Amino acid sequence: MYKFLPHTADVKFRARGKTIELMFSEAAMALKQAIAEGIKVQSRIRKNISVEGKDNLSLLYNFLEEFLFLLDAENFLLGNIESIKIKDGKLTARISGDSASNYKFTNDVKAVTYNDMFVKKNKEWVCQVVLDV
User: Fold this and answer.
1) Short-list 64, 62, 73, 11, CA closest to 37
2) The domain 2-132 belongs to what CATH superfamily?
3) Where are the domains of the chain?
């Protein structure tokens, strides 16, 4: 589950999950929603991705930045996280999506920022992210 929060200039959201993997998946879906609000992206292309981080915060940052890289470098727009595994600072995921040229974007997300970003575990995992638009 994710929700967007008020922010003066950028896009801010919080994502939650019972597991860290579910929280990361929800964060990726919030990023996709920020880019292409309300648009159902077809699962025509499947990819395996992997990122690393020194802690959960940098891992989340690198994970979300990977989707912006795929969008810019390969014209790939995320549609779904099919599977995700996190262990020892390494994340591997199977994702699906489509050619970005088949869709109209609602926001030009330039970058993920560390501003107001956090990853916490209480009863469930929760993160907060601000996207530079």
Assistant:
1) 11
2) Archease domain (3.55.10.10)
3) 2-132
CB 27 within 8 A of CB 64: yes
Rounded CA-CA distance 117/113 in Å is 7
**Strand duo 90-99 + 76-87: pairing:** antiparallel
Contacts 24+ apart (CB under 8 A), 54-59: 54/89, 55/89, 56/20, 56/119, 57/114, 57/117, 57/118, 57/119, 59/86, 59/89, 59/91
Q: For residue 80, how many other CB atoms are within 10 A of its CB?
A: 17
Position 13: which residue type? F
pTM given for the model: 0.95
36-51 confidence digits (pLDDT tens): 999 999 999 999 999 9
